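Practice problem: predict the structure.
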Amino acid sequence: MKQLTLIRHAKSSWKEPELTDFERPLNQRGQRDLPLMASRVRGFELIPDRLLYSSALRTRLTAQVLADTLHLPAAACIEVPEMYEACWETLLNLLQGQPDQLQHIMLVGHNPGLADLGNYLSGEHLPHFPTSAVQQLALSVLSWSELAENCATLQRFDYPKLHG
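Answer:
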């Protein structure tokens, strides 16, 4: 059985209107929530074989803290420009092309693509997928190419506001 962890980037800043959406950094809350979220991911023992992340600044920063906290080798962390503003179908195609020796993949990306992908795979329609949210899915497939609707079981859904 394979595992998929979906993580939405930490809260980003709108403070500098001259920046494009792609260039937005993390805001103060994002910087505060991110290390706590990364520590919870480590505590849940969600150590991926591969971490794929969007090339937008806020997702790169989120992925960097996760990689450091989880002690992931640089070779396991791959920036995927197509993940920026990707719909769930694009994310699904990306996953379906991953090598089968990988047992656990982590995606760090954006909404609505991440939430829609989680809904499609699990059949669980979560009402909200906030920033720094972590969705862990157990996949009833042997090959990434077999990913399909309702092939996943929701194992965990965690986000900062659950913890005060």
